[in-house]
Amino acid sequence: MSRPVPRRPEYQKINKDLFVLTYGALVAQLCKDYEKDEDVNKYLDKMGYGIGTRLVEDFLARSCVRRCHSYSEITDIIAQVAFKMYLGVTPSVTCNNASRNEFSLILDKNPLSEFVEELPAGRSSLCYCNLLCGIIRGALEMVHLAADVTFLQDRLKGDSVTEIGITFLKQPNEKKYRRRK
């Protein structure tokens, strides 16, 4: 029986670059297919949602994370483990409200827009990396957490950072998961 060949780091770099370039071609094609930016944004979110619903299983199997007890723990896992695992970056996390259900992931460097200098002409409302919002929303929904995920700031639109906002829509019902004695 043969052993699997370990992946070399340069293969991971090539795979990431290939993914980023392919993603750019996908967005360019969607811009040709759809006249409105809103339609492109919806399509990217829908694609991301589908990816997120499937990716969560791989994430849970590979990361060995334990059950989280708060939204801040969940957001930290997304930033420190998931983003690092799949995109090679670690965004910083900030909480945006007193009820502790709104968070921001702040990316100093966005790998999906690595080879993009600016948005296409006439596409000012395009959310180029909207796929990420769909992935996060889909993955959270698969672990029974409804969330609204949107871009708050984008470097491609002239902002200083890329910021993804996550708003958890309902409080977890702890009693539902407790064992009865």
TrEMBL record:
Pfam families: TRAPP. Belongs to the TRAPP small subunits family. BET3 subfamily. It is found in: Endoplasmic reticulum; Golgi apparatus, cis-Golgi network. The gene is Trappc3l. Transmembrane segments: none annotated. Coiled coil: none annotated. GO terms for biological process: Golgi vesicle transport. The lineage of its organism: Eukaryota, Metazoa, Chordata, Craniata, Vertebrata. InterPro entries: Bet3 (IPR016721), NO_sig/Golgi_transp_ligand-bd (IPR024096), TRAPP_component (IPR007194). GO terms for cellular component: endoplasmic reticulum; Golgi apparatus; TRAPP complex. It comes from the Eukaryota. It comes from Heterocephalus glaber. Keywords: Endoplasmic reticulum, ER-Golgi transport, Golgi apparatus, Lipoprotein, Palmitate, Transport. This is Trafficking protein particle complex subunit. Homodimer. Component of the multisubunit TRAPP (transport protein particle) complex, which includes at least TRAPPC2, TRAPPC2L, TRAPPC3, TRAPPC3L, TRAPPC4, TRAPPC5, TRAPPC8, TRAPPC9, TRAPPC10, TRAPPC11 and TRAPPC12. May play a role in vesicular transport from endoplasmic reticulum to Golgi.
